[in-house]
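User: I'm writing a tutorial on reading structure tokens. Could you give me a worked example: one chain, its sequence, then its tokens, then a sentence or two explaining what the tokens reveal?
Assistant: Sure. Here is the example chain.
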Amino acid sequence: MSDVSARCLDTFPQWLRTLGSDAEALVALVGDQGVPDGARRAIAGGLNYLFKSLDLIPDGIDDIGYLDDAFVLRVAVKLASSEDLAKLGAEQKGPLERLGKDSELIAEFLGDNYARLETYVAGLRRGAARGRSVDDIMGDAHVLGEFTGDVRAFARGYQPPSFAREEKNLIKMKAFFDAKLPK
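And here are its predicted structure tokens:
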């Protein structure tokens, strides 16, 4: 087993356990006017992915079904971090720094497919889920409120799946990303 595989098998279960709390921490930033607009849009796109009916990896697949959601949030945060975040306080920066740094392991894990995932996540700013686009979320206080409520409801109701520490799960994940990410 490679070092990257071992680190993934050790780390991915934690990402599954914290998906709900990560989403809740990030949704607070979407409505925070102190966060640059580009960063808020990147985060909103990543969070909106939680509600897409056609995920890269369907949520119902044991062990790995929510890992694509965890990956998307982390890549969205990395994209958000390309904005000027110097004026943010420690409470705002905390989840951004932690989740953004996690994208390094995703890049190691996916190799050449990481660039495709990053492009896909950047494109989520233009997509919609549950009839809501990022423009709707950012431009309408009522839609932002509904979106925030939906993310918080997801976080409260989310039950992390188990994740077997088996290399076959990593192989399945790579196969899904390779097949489903736009080329």
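What the tokens reveal: The helical segments are 3-30, 37-48, 67-80, 90-110, 113-123, 134-139, 141-157, 167-180. The radius of gyration is 16 Å.
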